[in-house]
Amino acid sequence: MSAAAAKPILYSYFRSSCSWRVRIALAxxxxxxxxxxxxxxxxxxQQFSAEFKALNPMQQVPALQIDGITLSQSLAIxxxxxxxxxxPRLLPQDAKKRAQVRMxxxxxxxxxxxxxxxxxxxxxxxxxxxxxxxxxxxxFQALEQILQHTAGRYCVGDEVSMADLCLVPQVANAExxxxxxxxxxxxxxxxxxxxxxxxxxxxxxxxxxxxxxxxRA
Length: 217
What we know:
By secondary structure, the chain is an alpha+beta fold. Helix 1 (17-28) packs antiparallel against helix 7 (162-176), helix 4 runs antiparallel to helix 6 and helix 7 packs across helix 8 (185-194). Helix content is 49%, strand content 7%. Strands 2-1-3-4 form a four-stranded mixed β-sheet, covered by helices on one side. The N and C termini lie far apart (36 Å). It is built from nine helices and four strands; from the N terminus they run βαβαββααααααα. The mean pLDDT is 92. The longest helix is centred in the middle third of the chain and has 23 residues, at 128-150.
């Protein structure tokens, strides 16, 4: 079997929100893949191994080997899947809605998640919980306001989009860091609706090959 025809391989960590985004996209598009867990905590972080650094010089998950190439960065991966497997679409046909989807995805992927990422929290010492809460809270205040203008059933209208793939993992992070979600009814409502969808269930951190027993669904 040629490299281009081989089954895709996702290097993932069960709790990584960026990996979860990609797992949702693969599930929605019905793409079968193998998963190689990369434990971000064990052995000082398996992402720092020479083997993984050769695969992704940024030493982060996810990384996806697909069609003979290796891609990192979750939104770049999702955009590639969107272009090569257009159904069901994750970017609306309407240019304005498509821009709104990208805006919300970037708001989360650039403006919230990196600030409370594991590598940053390690630097924060005892203040890591407070730091994560502040980063997520300020981001969610803006996001709630944006969604009040763009949302239908989901983040932008009534179709699942790339924005939704970013929202659900970020809400899970917020819950993990004990963020009070009461001020964000729109975020909460959309998240609840999305978690009822099969693609979001099977990609959930509680149902991955590397999920510890005590956290399994």
